[in-house]
Amino acid sequence: MTWTGPGGRFNIERIRRVVTGVDADGRSTVNRDGFSPNLREAAPGVRYTELWTTPSAPAVAGERMVDAGDVALTLVPEPRGTLIRVCEMYPPEPGSESFAMHATPTVDYIVVLSGHLSCTTADGSQVTLGPGETLIQRGTDHAWSAVGEEPCVFLAVIVDGNPSR
Questions:
Q1: Which among 10, 61, 103, 156 is least surrounded, fewest beta carbons within 10 Å?
Q2: Interval 93-110: pLDDT, tens
Q3: CATH assignment of the domain containing 85
Q4: Structural domain contains residue 26
Q5: Residue 127 domain-assigned?
Q6: Are 129 and 112 spatial neighbours (Cβ–Cβ below 8 Å)?
Q7: Under a CB-based contact definition with an 8 Å cutoff, are residues 29 and 23 in contact?
Q8: Cis amide bond preceding 58, omega within 30
Q9: Range of the structural domain that residue 57 is part of
Q10: Domains held by the chain: number
């Protein structure tokens, strides 16, 4: 099965997620293998599928557990925790704004998979990223916007951090 839709665009409804763990005898096994069922709408024009979360670091590895991607919408992980998600953001409607300037006390690793994503910082700096390009967002004020005609799909790994201010 493919996880791209028309025109080769990533389809966040069809992202295969394989999760390993241990069986009742303590042997490694594949616990889950299928499309991520945790599709959410964060705001108009923004959807994401939560792939996995960890409530703390170091994370517990290998144990049998519930679907750690089936969590309520949150911008930040649990204290000392992590989130991994794939987001789909549509360009704003003409005359509307991008996401409001905000900051989270996290370190975010953003990898653009398709489309283009613009990040604006509080001093007015703006960068636009395309497929395969990465932004490391380090707890600073920023605003996001998809740029162009197509939605932007990006992978986000979000790690709890301590604010520097």
A1: 61
A2: 876 766 788 888 999 999
A3: 2.60.120.10
A4: no
A5: yes
A6: yes
A7: yes
A8: yes
A9: 38-160
A10: 1
60 within domain boundaries: yes
**Separation between Cα atoms, residue 3 and residue 123, nearest integer Å:** 37
What tokens were used for 48? 């994401």
In-domain check, residue 33: no
Q: Which amino acid is at 7?
A: G
> Considering Cα of 66, then 68, then 70, then 73, what sign does the dihedral take?
positive
Burial 14-52 (b: 16+ CB within 10 A, else e): ebebebeeeeeeeeeeeeeeebbebeeebeebbbbbbbb
Which residues have C-beta within 8 Å of that of residue 83, sequence separation ≥ 6? Answer: 50, 52, 53, 74, 76, 77, 156, 157, 158
Among 92, 99, 59, residue whose Cα is nearest residue 78: 59
pTM of the entire predicted model: 0.85
Backbone phi and psi for residue 13, each to the nearest 5 degrees, phi listed first: -80, -10
Residue 2's pLDDT band, with cuts at 50, 70 and 90, is very low
Output DSSP code: residue 91. P
Among candidates 3, 81, 86, which has minimal Cα distance to 50? 86
For the stretch 3-59, pLDDT in tens is: 455 556 678 888 889 998 888 888 888 988 998 888 888 888 889 998 998 888 887
